[in-house]
Amino acid sequence: MARACAHTQHKEACCSILEFLVQLMNRSGSYPTSIPPTIHAVGQRFTHLLVASAAGGLPMSRLEDVGDVLTTLIDEKCTAGEALPWLQVRSQPLTLTLRVPTRL
C-alpha cells in the first residue's frame, strides 16, 4: 500500500493514503502485537520510498504530507528509535548539486 501511495499521481488519493498511514502509526501503541512488527518489517523500504518521493517523485504540493508520515515514523512510540538510522541510510545517496553561474 505504501508503494502504491508513493507513486499515486492523484492528489486526493495520495493524501488520503498518507493520512491513513499517519493515523495507523499513531495508534501503534494500541495494537503492539500487530502494527509495530509490520512497520519494523517494511520500515527501511518504506522510508526509502518516502525519501525518494520527497526528493523528486511527487509534486511540491504533497511534500508536507510526506513530511507528516516521516515525522510520525521517526516518533519513538512507533518504531522505538529505529527509523532514524533508516532515514540516515536512505538519505545518504541523495546529493545536492548547486550550480553557480560562471558569468554574472
Q: Name the assembly state.
A: single chain
Radius of gyration: 15 Å
| β-strand number | 0
- Give the overall silhouette: globular
Mean pLDDT: 76
Low-confidence runs: none
Number of helices: 6
Q: Kindly name the structural category.
A: mainly alpha
Largest sheet: none
Q: How is this structure best described in words?
A:
- This protein is mainly α and 104 residues long.
- The chain has one domain (2-91).
- Helices cover 67% and strands 0% of the residues.
- The chain is built from six helices and no strands.
- The chain has helices spanning 2-7, 11-26, 35-57, 63-74, 76-79, 83-91.
- The N and C termini lie far apart (48 Å).
- 25% of the residues are buried.
- The mean pLDDT is 76.
Characteristic key phrases:
globular, 6 helices, mainly alpha, 104 residues
